[in-house]
From TrEMBL:
Pfam families: UPF0014. The chain crosses the membrane at residues 20-43, 79-96, 108-130, 230-255. Belongs to the UPF0014 family. It is found in: Membrane. This is ABC transporter permease. Keywords: Membrane, Transmembrane, Transmembrane helix. Its main location: membrane. InterPro entries: UPF0014_fam (IPR005226). It is a multi-pass membrane protein.
Amino acid sequence: MVGARVGRAQPPIVVLVQTGTLLGLGPGVIVSVVVLAAAAAAVHRWALGGGWLPPLTASLRAVGQLAVVALLVSQLGRSPWLALGFAALMFAVATATTGRRVDPARWWWAAAPIAAGVLPASAALLATGVLPFEGLALIALVGQQVGGAMTTASLAGRRVSAELAGRRGEVEAAVALGFEWRAARLLVARHTARESLVPPLDQTRTVGTVTLPGAFVGMVLGGASPVDAAIVQLVVLVSLLAVDALAAAVALWLCTARGWGQVRE
């Protein structure tokens, strides 16, 4: 088995080709996936009162999408510039997804909180040499950061918009007392934006005691040492925490200062 280890000449974030895993990848994979998907469909139908199709279609989509992603990453990972192009595509999809959820009329504004989180965090890791300018490393880490920023921006934007709409009377009362519109909105919305950071904060606080996140588990199953996996997971978690905090702050600013999320004066 060939694998990357931490050394002086190679940053700890790099994970090269693994020729084996700790999980069996034989015919049993197909059997287990079919059985588990069928079990999910049965529970969804009989215990939860839903239909058979949602778990089955979700599983089928996962098979198709992962096959395409595996093919793309295997090719794009050979070049850092192609990897950056793929990251840009992920960024565009994340922007459209968040924008449609928060403010469909101005969906492109979602690019601001996502970029505000991802760009500084990625630049810091590149500048310190933790993240090498290599295709697979860029796709793996930047992809996670884009996903985290998308989720946080969606949560913060939607929750802040709902809070401002539901407490509009309080905002108008504060304006009548002499507050600016943005200051009045911040009075009722800032704590709501902070709530979007609860999931990443809890994940970071409980890592290793309650949860073993994907980067750690994936590297260990791929044959990396637990120490190397822990170092990589630490980098991923802390960078995601910074990404999410920046994304939430910019989403709050857009909602309170620019009226994003269909909040109008």
